[in-house]
């Protein structure tokens, strides 16, 4: 299963709610959507696969967050950063037995 599929599987609701909030609140999303952002963070930090993606793609994730912070009034301009992060996430090696040692 691809890393992004796992992210979507375990945190789809949180990701969709946060994304919608950002899209509908272009000038106030930092404040308006903060609680939803925390829900996404809590969800993603609790799954080992997502932890590995965040670890392996931290540079891309930090760049995306910086872009959002620097472009609070136009978050859509950060689409290239999202694409780079998602591209990285797809390359994360999830085949090692760190994930499910009892299944290997």
From TrEMBL:
Signal peptide: none annotated. One of its GO terms (cellular component) is mitochondrial intermembrane space. GO terms for biological process: cellular respiration. Coiled coil: none annotated. Residues 4-48, 51-90 form the IMS import disulfide relay-system CHCH-CHCH-like Cx9C domain. InterPro entries: CHCH_domain-containing_protein, CX9C. This is IMS import disulfide relay-system CHCH-CHCH-like Cx9C domain-containing protein. It comes from Cynoglossus semilaevis (Tongue sole).
């Amino acid at each position: 299963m691809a890393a992004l599929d796992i992210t979507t599987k375990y945190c789809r609701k949180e990701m969709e709610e946060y994304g919608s909030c950002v899209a509908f609140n272009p000038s106030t999303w930092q404040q308006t959507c903060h609680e939803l952002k925390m829900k996404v963070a809590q969800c993603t930090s609790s799954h080992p696969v997502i932890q590995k993606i965040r670890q392996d793609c931290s540079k891309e994730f930090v760049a995306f967050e910086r872009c959002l912070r620097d472009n609070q009034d136009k978050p859509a301009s950060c689409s290239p950063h999202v694409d780079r992060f998602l591209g990285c996430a797809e390359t994360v090696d999830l085949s090692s037995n760190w994930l499910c040692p009892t299944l290997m």
